[in-house]
Amino acid sequence: MKRITWNTLSETERNAALARPAQSRADELRRGVEGIINEVRNKGDAALRELSARYDRCALDVLEVGEAEFSAAEAKLAPELKAAIREAAGRIEAFHTAAAPQPIGVNTAVGVRVERVLRPIQRVGLYVPAGSAPLPSTALMLGVPARIAGCREVVLCSPARADGTCDEAVLFAACTVGVHRVFKLGGAQAIAAMAYGTESVPRCDKLFGPGNAWVTEAKLQISSDPNGAAIDMPAGPSEVLVIADAQANPAFVAADLLSQAEHGPDSQVVLVSSSTSLLDRVADEVARQCAQLPREAIAEQALAQSRLIEVESLAQAVQVSNRYAPEHLILQVTGARDLVADIESAGSIFVGAWTPESVGDYCSGSNHVLPTYGYARSYSGVSVASFQKQITVQELDPNGLRAIGPCTATLAAAEQLEAHRRAVTLRLAALGVRL
């Protein structure tokens, strides 16, 4: 990890220090994804079979997972894993139910009622990666809020293995949270299928979930097409920023950094501290622990573009964090709760020495589908609200129009929209009110 002293840097150097690894949106990738999307749109299921054979090395006669496959998957899983999936789903449901938006109604004037009603997005598509590491937890994080929101149909795509089957834990998690249909599809072709529909895969209104550069590029392309589908958020590689003081346990800090570094070679981890000693000890711990990881080679590639940043104070550490806007922010400092009020931009915050980021990934109850690549400045993580539409309703009686009609007419006249003004004044005249 690169060592940096923040106060010795120019503004340009500070920007470079906090730069993410370059996302792969090269022309070759863009054209490749565009080609896949066009194949799926033009050839439907036939393209999906061809692309699955080409990229996933599997021959698929039937694209959709059948009941027998769900039963076989459940039978293969260890009881403790099934129990953990159910336990995690329960906590995710408890938090997301409590945090879900509620309908409201307010009388903004006598005779004027304004309400907000909630409607589920009718059909949603969930993408669950299963490349080097299948992610049943993502099926939980997406499926639970979709169910709470009341989506009529929930479709899930996850890549098939060479034998044409999906990861058993992903299938069990999908069943646990009430996903309606699962397809053995991965990559950009899965995104295209859910966005535009094929003979087998239904067209979805909004797509959710993380993925590699091809999946991310496909989501960006379909979201910019009026005939495509909405997406949850722009996203890049996974990342974590840790703020730690001299009292922090270096083994804990190193473990938190590595838990993100092992996600992928383009992940980024950042440690910010005012303690030179702590930075030294964490650097040693990272090297020691990394050598023990099964995904050591992946973690080492991520660490090569990661940072150890020395600052003057915790206050400056918070400034650096807000500037970076991390997906995950871990506060391993004395009085960590006191820092939360100063955090302006982060996907999710983990407070104190006993709160590893891993619990948020799996089972604390919060959601792990979060804005990355600095998008935490303007986006929030997935929630029940992500699967809903909020519709406003207003109703006026005659007294209500008398009360707010003159205000409406005055503003319409100021904007030189005469038809807007007359829609009000004609009604007021019918009530005997002259302006």
Structure explained in plain terms:
Helices cover 45% and strands 16% of the residues. With 435 residues, it is of the alpha/beta class. The strands form 3 sheets. Strands 1-11-10-9-12-13 form a 6-stranded parallel β-sheet, sandwiched between helices. A 5-stranded parallel β-sheet has the order 6-5-4-7-8, with helices on both faces. Strand 9, helix 10 (250-261) and strand 10 form a beta-alpha-beta unit. Helix 2 packs across helix 9 (213-223), helix 4 packs across helix 7 (168-176) and helix 6 (136-149) packs parallel to helix 7. The protein is globular. It starts with a strand and ends in a 5-residue tail after the last helix. The model has no long low-confidence stretch (mean pLDDT 95).
Q: What can be said about this structure in brief?
A:
The chain is an alpha/beta fold. It contains 17 helices and 14 strands.
Q: Which stretches are poorly predicted, pLDDT < 50 over at least 5 residues?
A: none
Figure out the total of helices: 17
Strand order of the largest sheet: 1-11-10-9-12-13
How large a portion of the residues is in β-strands, by DSSP E?
15-25%
The total count of strands amounts to 14
**Main sheet: strands, sense, barrel:** 6 strands, parallel
Distance between the termini: 71 Å
| Gyration radius, rounded | 25 Å
Shape: globular
Q: Provide the structure class.
A: alpha/beta
Helicity level? 40-55%
